């Protein structure tokens, strides 16, 4: 019969083996997570924008379509003028991907099928002085998107109104809204940041509200490019100069959450 020492020693040996297996399994999970750039990007977008899995998947799909278009025409930027522009949520995801520089560089090389290829981003591409160039890139992107993807239009809720000329034309100005008999009513919007600061202001539902939003942020001490906005339905809000509250479905007494962006290394 086996002695008690043998039985105990065997138990300790098995315990050590199980412990070693657990450590190996844990390290494999960590390596797998590090190599899975999509999982990393999903976590970052959940942290920065509170995107759920469904929204992230939709934006990722459009992001991959956009980057495929850029790869097809070698729109790498850098010392060359950019030819294509991303939609508003596509741009948000692109920013987060670039911050994960190691995986982004590998992604660029893979999607372009060319080692060393890198798709640069211009953070000033939407400034006033570049408006004409920006509009030209938007038009080119829309044409390229439809040509590549069997006549489909970029979805407005992901790309923004400027990439869907039918919707943009219908909401181009306050006069257009009146002709379409869309009421231009006064609504109250509550702005609240993640530390509990609150501010309510009144605006017109069919008038662009970017400047009002920027002025309200100054009350909190934020700059427009340092925050992200989350609407009452949990979807991100990225207003341009021509966007109105009605474009985002905002109603009286709705709340917009202000989230300070986190920067990666």
How would you describe this structure to a colleague?
51% of the residues lie in helices and 11% in strands. The chain contains ten helices and five strands; from the N terminus they run αααααααααββαβββ. Strands 2-1-5-3-4 form a five-stranded mixed sheet, covered by helices on one side. Helix 3 crosses helix 4. The longest helix has 32 residues, at 4-35.
How would you write the strand order of the largest sheet?
A: 2-1-5-3-4
Task: Give me the strand/helix succession.
Answer: HHHHHHHHHEEHEEE
Output the radius of gyration: 24 Å
Mean pLDDT reading: 77
Shape: globular
Q: So how many helices?
A: 10
Task: Summarize the biggest pleated sheet.
Answer: 5 strands, mixed
Question: How helical, in percent, are the residues?
Answer: 40-55%
Uncertain segments are 15-20, 166-182
Number of strands: 5
What proportion strand?
A: 5-15%
Global structural class: alpha+beta
Q: Termini, distance in Å?
A: 62 Å
Summary keywords:
265 residues; alpha+beta; five-stranded mixed beta sheet; globular
What's the short version?
By secondary structure, the protein is α+β, with helices and mostly antiparallel strands. The protein is 51% helix and 11% strand. The protein has a five-stranded mixed beta sheet with strand order 2-1-5-3-4, with helices on one face.
